[in-house]
C-alpha cells in the first residue's frame, strides 16, 4: 500500500485501536512513544532470517496539540526516533534504514486525538545526475533583476623582476694584474727557442691580497603577493547529493530533468522552486499534491536561510554556506 493510501486509511480509523485515542487533555510525548512502538510491533514482517519493521513514522496532530510541541519539536522527533531504534534493538528487529519520526498537522483532528502512519523507507543510493538543463529565470516574487551578480575571481598581482646589480670593478686591481702579467714571447731566432722567464706570481699574489674586496650589495626583498580571500558560496543539501545555489532558481521534483531530482513517489514531478531574493532565499511550492513544509509547517511561499529544515515527501533538505 502506498504512502498516501496508508495515511488516508489510518486517518479514517483515527479513533480505533492503536491508531488514535481521545484524551481529556493534550497529547503527551510519552503516549506518542508508546503508540509508536506498538505501531512498529503491529507492522513487522517476518522474512527467512530477519524480522523487518517500518522505519519512517508520521504523527498527525490536531493544531492545538501541535502548538504545544513547537518550542522543542525537532528535539522531540530525534528523541522518539532514538526510542524506536532502541526498541528495535531490544526486540531483535531489522530496520531497512535510519529511524525517522515526522510530525504534521491535521485540521480534521480534535484535541487529544492523533494518527500514526508507518512506512518502510530504505535509504536511497546517491542519485547520479545528468548535465542539468538551463535553469529558469527567477520569477518576479524572487526579486527579478535584483539578484546579486556572481563573484568574479580576484585580479592576479604581477611580480616585477628586479634587475641584477652590476659588480664594482677596482681600477687598482686591474693595473696590478697588467703590471705583473707575463710578456709575450719573442719569435725564435734559432732552432733552440730561448728560455722565457716565469712571471712573478708571488708578487702579483701579494699585491692582490692587499687590495680590499668590494662589499656585496644586498638585493631588495620581494614581498609575496597577498592571497586572495576565500569566496563563500551557498549549497542546497539533500539525501541524494548537493548542488550550488546560483543566480537561477533551482527546481525540486521527481522528474530527472529537475535540478534536485528526488526518487520518491510522494513528490510531484515539479514540486517546489528555490531562488535568491533581496532578503536571502525564497522557497515556493509549485502547486504540488502533498505540499511543501519548512520547519514542520506547510507553506506556499516562505523566506528561508541556513538552519531551516525543508521537508518534501520523505526527504529533508537544507541550505549550507561553504568557503573555498
Layout of secondary structure:
Blueprint: H1 3-12, H2 29-42, E1 45-46, E2 51-52, E3 56-61, H3 63-67, H4 73-91, E4 100-105, E5 114-119, H5 171-179, H6 201-210, E6 232-238, E7 241-244, E8 250-253, E9 260-261, E10 272-277, E11 280-285, E12 292-294, E13 297-299, E14 301-304, E15 310-312, E16 315-323
Parallel strand pairs: 3-4, 8-9
Antiparallel strand pairs: 1-2, 3-5, 6-7, 6-16, 8-10, 10-11, 11-14, 12-13, 12-15, 15-16
Helix pairs in contact: 2-4
Give an account of the 3D structure.
There is one protein chain. The chain has 324 residues and is of the alpha+beta class. The protein has helices spanning 3-12, 29-42, 63-67, 73-91, 171-179, 201-210; strands at 45-46, 51-52, 56-61, 100-105, 114-119, 232-238, 241-244, 250-253, 260-261, 272-277, 280-285, 292-294, 297-299, 301-304, 310-312, 315-323. A hairpin with a 2-residue loop joins β12 (292-294) and β13. It is elongated. Residues 1-23, 125-133, 172-181 and 201-207 have low confidence and may be disordered.
Order of helices and strands: HHEEEHHEEHHEEEEEEEEEEE
Q: Share of helix among residues?
A: 10-25%
Alpha carbon gap, first and last residue: 46 Å
Structural class label: alpha+beta
Rg to the nearest angstrom? Answer: 40 Å
Low-confidence stretches: 1-23, 125-133, 172-181, 201-207
Q: Sketch the major β-sheet.
A: 6 strands, antiparallel
Provide key terms for this protein.
324 residues, alpha+beta, six-stranded antiparallel beta sheet, 16 strands
Summarize the structure.
The protein is an alpha+beta fold and 324 residues long. It is 21% helix and 23% strand.
